[in-house]
Amino acid sequence: MSHIINHRFNQFSWAVAAVLLLPLLFTKGMFFDGLTYATIARNLEEGLGTFWAPHYTGYIHSEFYEHPPFSFGIHSIFYRLFGDQAWVDRIYPYTLYGLSILMMRRLWSLFMPAGHRAWIPQLLWTLTPGVIWVHQNNMLEAPLNTATLAVVWLLIEGTIKRNYFWSALAGVLFYIALGVKGPVGGFVIIVLPIFAVLFPEHRKASLWSGLAWMTVFSLLFSYSYLYIPDFNKFFEGYINRQLMPTLSGLREQAGSVSDSLIVISRQFLIPVAVLLVLIFRRKARYKMRRESTFFFIIALSATVPFLFMDRQHHYYFMPAMAYWMLGFAILMEQNPWPWSIQRKKWVIRLTYANLSIWVVAIGLSIYFSKSPSRDKHVIKAMKSFSADYPKSSIQVAHLPSQWKWAAIAARYEKIQLCEAPQDLYLNVRGEVAPEGFELLTEYPKAGFDIYKKATP
Predict the structure, then answer these.
(1) HSE on the CB side for 442, CA within 13 Å?
(2) Is a pLDDT exceeding 60 seen at residue 1?
(3) Which residues, at least 6 apart from 282, have a Cβ–Cβ distance to it below 8 Å?
(4) Which of 71, 177, 296, 308 is most exposed, with the fewest beta carbons within 10 Å of its own?
(5) What does the pLDDT read at residue 250?
(6) In degrees rounded to 5, what are phi and psi of residue 440?
(7) What is the DSSP code (8-state) at residue 454?
(8) Mean per-residue pLDDT for 122-139?
């Protein structure tokens, strides 16, 4: 009976993911970084820019060096398969969510005999606020998380089974992880040393596994650097324009250590609350197991470096959450209760709950399919304006303060905002109207008006 209940909980975990993700599937609107990445990927599919020189707009990052291009390249494949549809911007990160879950479940099975309880880390991770937000908004942390999870899984699989083909394949995935968001994916370097310390029976295998991993990665990186000229150009541009200025504190400064610790603590509310309930209900000790220690150390290595940066955003910590939740889940699972409950009524309740949640998820996705999920007035205004002035360029007074509008216009209507002189002018409502322009269209709900250069 306990296996049947765990099977129902597995279904419940997927149902929870469905109700959190599906309602936004067919909607427009997301965080403007996600819109930016989607536009670059769409442009790549349409032949604007190249893989090593991605293109955003003709006025903003005509050659995009802010992040490595691997995620844009993979995302562009989805446009090739499904066309330029708004829902493709959700399907891509949702696919990454599913792949991440499969790898978390495999990691659980490698360490835990009770493989049928892999729903525990899956559910904890799914209910982590930052995880769902990242996948809903097409952030680069989604592919970064998938790639780094793949590296960790392949390294552990190869080491435990003494099959170093898996470890060599991890070298390819590590190359891709660094190609998604640069050195922030490098925290996985700590995996094998920690594994060798905590699991001495695999110490020698860890050495061979690490050798296979680093050999393949080094060969890939060396070949790219020596024989792909466009890689050289991108690598130098990324280092000089993005990475070094960021590490030197010359770019955007946001957040603080205290803010980040608050954000991180919020992600832990559910696992800590569940653990406390288990302790008080059973009055049983929960020892720190070496498996939990292993994942907690990986999580710390993915979390702590960001606390020393001048720029800290809540979504930066999302790739660490998979390891935090695996650590918490392994800690919780060590005592039988409540994972071994054997009551038919729980099977029936979970069956009905799963069915109900799926009905709600599908119903909400249909209900919201015709409505933007955020920034709906701006999206509708850009669509209305684009009907008369398709693919136009519009002047603004201060582009850095209009990044969101620029991202919405570029992604959904291929309209470009810029500071260069144009015949059209977007004026923020409440600001002084530009001289030499006459009012064309008002969009009060969107917060701006469009002017056209006056005829002499």
Answers:
(1) 5
(2) no
(3) 335, 337
(4) 308
(5) 60
(6) -105, -55
(7) P
(8) 95
